[in-house]
Design brief:
Its main location: membrane. The protein is of the alpha+beta class. It contains 20 helices and 16 strands. It has two domains: 236 residues, Serine Threonine Protein Phosphatase 5, Tetratricopeptide repeat (Alpha Horseshoe), CATH 1.25.40; 183 residues, no CATH class. It is globular. The two termini are 18 Å apart.
């Protein structure tokens, strides 16, 4: 594997060279702004913990930058881009699609840096480093590696599992491993990681046992489908395991849902009571790669941004609008109704709606944002989630492509819905009281009436779509479904209308309802053709050209 070999040769040679200086307590609570540290640094508990800080940010940068929403939302059909990113919007991602390559690269950087951290801590940790901190730091690295492999196996299927970069440098026979064996490896890893992490974070934003047990709930729920086989029946043992871990996190972690959904994305929201694991970005001028650049590409215009705001063609799809309760289909081309689900306004911007947390530049001054209505058929619903505004809105901590707020990787709400889905399992519905209770914890927070009687798998799927829209989650829900019911996954995707639409408020500002109409000038390419030949991402062309072993049949992975 020449190319992968070259990647890790570079990682080994370049990234461990920077020695961090004196570390204040505040500095240790957030990722250092420098590169991964050299071997002489691992002499105290604080130094060892600082050495793993960049695993929470910089190694994920290429994925978070644009690939997360391109794969997680554009490809899934929850959002679209009218003029850019069309490969993922139209479900014809190729080996040359930029976000395909950047995601692959980022995940293998996570793997490589995690491996280096494990090896360096094991080899260089000095006698003053406590056994507890050494175990914790290694567990952090193993967690990140396992999570990276979860993304890799779900996007590309069979992928090479690499536990030791140094071994790879002298081994040119490494090839892809089967999805089942990758899932077995990362699940086994996460079980051990859960034992090695503390129940309370050692620093703000650091992983805990509940981060790992939450991932186990996620992993087992998906892995139950991986082992479904020809019958399409998910593995009941794994469904039970998902239920077990989800309930442990719900009842034992001390985490809690925020009372208002919209507060999840109001500055400052980092490391709140609902977050089980977030990427820890910092406003970091001069230290590219440790900041959150994503808002630059999602904010609809420069009037609410900091020299960027390049998301003027990005917004909700016609399909995702229909997933929100309170939006009803009136005819083939018109949707009309008063928005009930509070998650819609917190995820997408509706014309006339007010967002007082964001400052908008207007001729002659500024005002609190009222999302514009231009009165033409190119007015649509823009993206709100993760848009926190100008520097003045975030304590001065924002500049072009440089934002400090974190990215959720797992929230407690997921555990409530995972429990409910695990209970439904291979059935169409359930009347289990606890499953209904947990589902309604999420559902009613959005201002909706509780579901009573029975709860269906389709209701849970729909709830996940609207709860996590624009958090890079929807695609992986479809992949999980595809493992055990590919026909249904294709049917959902191929029934979607991914197109542009015109949004008209009944009055401006402070509307009480909106009318949504498909735009006359953007009616083409609203549908896709998802099938067994294009569902998984193709391995990036640059990798295939330099790593011929990636084209060989996959083999089961045996952990070293």
């Amino acid at each position: 594997m020449k190319y992968v070999k070259n990647i890790y040769a570079k990682l080994i040679a370049v990234l461990p060279i920077a020695l961090l200086g004196a570390c204040s307590e505040e500095f240790l609570e957030r990722p250092p702004k420098d590169a991964i540290v050299d071997a002489g640094f691992y002499q105290t508990d604080d130094q060892v913990l600082a050495s793993t800080s960049l695993l929470y940010s910089k190694v994920w940068f290429d994925y978070n930058d644009k690939a997360s929403y391109n794969l997680g939302d554009f490809r899934a059909g929850t959002a679209f881009s009218a003029w850019n990113d069309r490969g993922n919007v139209l479900f014809n991602t190729t080996g040359n699609t930029p976000e395909n390559g950047s995601a692959w690269r980022s995940f293998f950087i996570v793997v490589g840096q995690s491996n280096l951290a494990i090896q360096n801590i094991q080899k260089y940790a000095g006698p003053a480093v406590s056994a507890a901190v050494k175990k914790h730091a290694i567990a952090e690295a193993r967690f990140m590696r396992a999570l990276a492999y979860r993304f890799l196996v779900m996007n590309w299927g069979a992928v090479p599992v690499i536990e030791n970069n140094l071994t790879l440098l002298s081994d040119t026979t490494v090839q892809r491993n089967t999805p089942k064996s990758v899932w077995k490896f990362i699940t086994g890893e996460m079980r051990q990681i859960a034992e090695d992490l503390p129940e309370k974070p050692v620093r703000v934003g650091r992983l805990t046992r509940w981060s790992a047990e939450g991932m186990l709930a996620r992993f087992y729920l998906t892995r139950a489908g991986v082992d479904a086989g020809a019958t399409g029946q998910r593995n009941q043992v794994f469904l039970d395991s998902a239920k077990y871990y989800a309930e442990r996190v719900i009842t034992l972690s001390g985490a809690s849902l925020l009372p208002k959904y919209g507060d999840l994305f109001l500055y400052p929201y980092d490391n709140n009571a609902e977050s089980l694991f977030s990427l820890q970005w910092v406003y970091s001028p001069g230290a590219w790669g440790t900041q959150n650049s994503t808002p630059a590409y999602l904010a609809y215009g420069p009037d609410i941004a900091n020299g960027d705001g390049w998301g003027g063609d990005k917004g909700a799809t016609w399909w995702v609008m229909q997933q929100y309760e309170g939006i009803k289909t009136v005819s083939e081309t018109v949707l009309q109704g008063r928005t009930v689900d509070q998650r819609l306004k917190a995820t997408f911007m509706l014309p006339g709606a007010s967002y007082p947390e964001i400052t908008q530049t207007i001729p002659g001054g500024s005002q609190k944002l009222v999302f514009p209505f231009v009165g033409t058929d190119n007015n649509f619903i823009a993206i709100k989630k993760y848009i926190t505004g100008k520097a003045v809105d975030v304590g001065g901590q924002a500049a072009q492509q440089n934002y400090g707020h974190d990215t959720y990787m797992m929230r407690l709400a997921e555990m409530y819905l995972a429990y409910a889905e695990a209970v439904v399992g291979n059935n169409a519905s359930t009347n289990d009281a606890k499953a209904l209770q947990y589902f309604n914890q999420v559902h009613t927070r959005a201002g909706l009436s509780p579901v009573t009687g029975t709860l269906t798998s389709d209701q849970i799927f729909k709830e996940r779509i609207v709860e996590f829209a624009m958090e890079g989650m929807a695609w992986y829900d479809l992949v999980s479904l595809h493992y055990y019911n590919p026909t249904k996954a294709y049917a959902i995707l191929n029934a979607q209308d991914r197109g542009f639409f015109f949004t008209k408020p009944d009055r401006f500002p402070d509307p009480t309802s909106w009318t949504f109409t498909k735009t006359a000038w953007a009616t083409a390419e609203r549908k896709i053709d998802a099938n067994s030949g294009n569902f998984l991402l193709p391995i990036p062309s640059a990798e295939l050209s330099q790593a011929p072993n990636l084209q060989k049949p996959a083999v089961d992975y045996q952990s070293k």
